[in-house]
Amino acid sequence: MESKEILIAELTKLLNGGTAHVGLQDAVANLPFNLLGERPHKLPYSIWQLVDHIRIAQWDMFEFSKDGNHKSPKWPDDYWPKETAPKSEAEWENCLKQINVDLKAFIELIESKDLFEKIPHGSGQNILREALQIADHNAYHVAEIIVIRRLLNAWKS
């Protein structure tokens, strides 16, 4: 296997949740809908807000990586949902689906691009940096989701 193929395989594992910790799909599996808006112990965010934030930020990094005309949302206001809970189970499911669709498309992008080439419309970023940033950002917030689930007694023991 060539070095590029090895790197892409490892990035793909990392983007899908890595091998050293729980990924997003496991972090939200079997989560009761009524707990999505809970903010235990006066935490400033709910599981819904964290998951929707992951969706928005990942989408932004993906779009930035491929589209020179992309306009990022206003930081930080437009990266966080105002509502503590989704309006419906359909909104929740659509959020999770969009995260998966965008992640799959981003992985296809890293498979087709030079990971080290500067993004023409960026300020020095490359696709590798964006891949690592998505993985790092998602892992950080997935850990927060698990902490909230533990505080709500809704995490496997």
Automatic annotation (TrEMBL):
TM regions (residue ranges): none
Protein name: DinB family protein
InterPro entries reported in the protein's UniProt record: DinB-like, DinB/YfiT-like
Domain DinB-like: 24-145
